[in-house]
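Side project, low priority. Logging it here so it doesn't get lost.
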Amino acid sequence: MNFKIKAAALLMAAITMGSSLSALPASAAEQSSANAAYSTASAKAPVAKNTYSSTDKNITISWEKVSGATGYYIYRWSSIAPTWIRIGTASSTASSYTDKKVTASTSYKYYIVAYKKSGSKRILSNRSGEISTSTKPAKPQIVNSLADTSYITVSWDKIKCSGYEVSYKNGGSWKSYKKINSANTTSCNITGLKAETKYSVRVRSFVKAEDGTNVYSDYSTAVDITTEADFAYRRSSQYLIDRLDKAKRSASKNTYYECNRQGDKETKTLITLSDADTATIKRFVDAHYKSDMTVGEFLDYTVQWLNKNIAYADGYNGPAYSTIWGRSHVDNCFNYKVGQCIQYNSAICAVMRYLGYDARVVQGYRGQSLSNKWQHFWCEVTINSKDYVMDTYNYGTDGDWYFVCATYAETRPYSYNSHYIMNNKLM
């Protein structure tokens, strides 16, 4: 007797004499082989239902019951363990099975085999069709939100998934705003909104199942965010705006120099803006640069916007400085709306570099004399070989005054009766 015939004879003997459940085939190949051995006495195969339900912790499948079946065996394949294994049994009255040993954001396939007892024998049906499923990803949570006059930015925690869907509403029904096909992108800007308006925002994650469909998590808890009111912009003198409009500009830059002129000799530090900062600047420009503005008017507007919208980070007029220093200047000003002179004047410098101006940040002093001075940072721009001051100051501490493309001579002395001081010289 050759090996194959002997193996088949042993298998038939085991079935005839009564085999334990553990001796039943576990893999698809074994199942097919076993069915071939006693196909003349097989039970009717269950009809699997393609619909299923899932959470991030379980999957429930179902089938049409087989008349006369004693019970059912459930087999599973997963994307993280790609082999068929038998995972459980169900009684003759069951038509569904809940698999609780699953992982969130994972694809699974199932099939069912009916069996019936005939004396000491167990007769297996052919396998059902396969049911393609996936567990839901975990529900994300919104961890931060920011608002401007016409846009909202929301951020959420990272989830194991294929991507996210962001939706919002202003009363009425929810609107899907954006589908993000990356698990690593955990923020979204919702633009084109109305000023001084309350919006609700929510996020859900999704995974791609084996059959190509999206399986969504539950929605995050919705957050309510109100867009800000714009300030009443007053144009500065036309000759100041004309200087900015007539400047020769280069391509957009994501770097600028921070120039320390507190001593006799200037030292320079090259500052490179992150991709996130560049995206923040672009968002601000897109939201506030109106079609009827010249570039000079927009910069005039931006200086005033920073003057009026930044809370001074001194622990009295705004948060303590220690709570903001770990963030970039652009992030602090345009997202969190906090800072001191280095933050808000670096922010205007970054915008000017984005628009192609030859601008830098200066670290020097303001004061009444060389012996009566205090540290200050401001933005300086060169136009046609001449240097001009762009300085936003802060409305909450310094009042409603600022400099837009003024020469050093035009700033001397002004308001505080103080001068710009750099390289040990009164400017």
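Brief comment: The chain has a mean pLDDT of 88.
Revisit when time allows.
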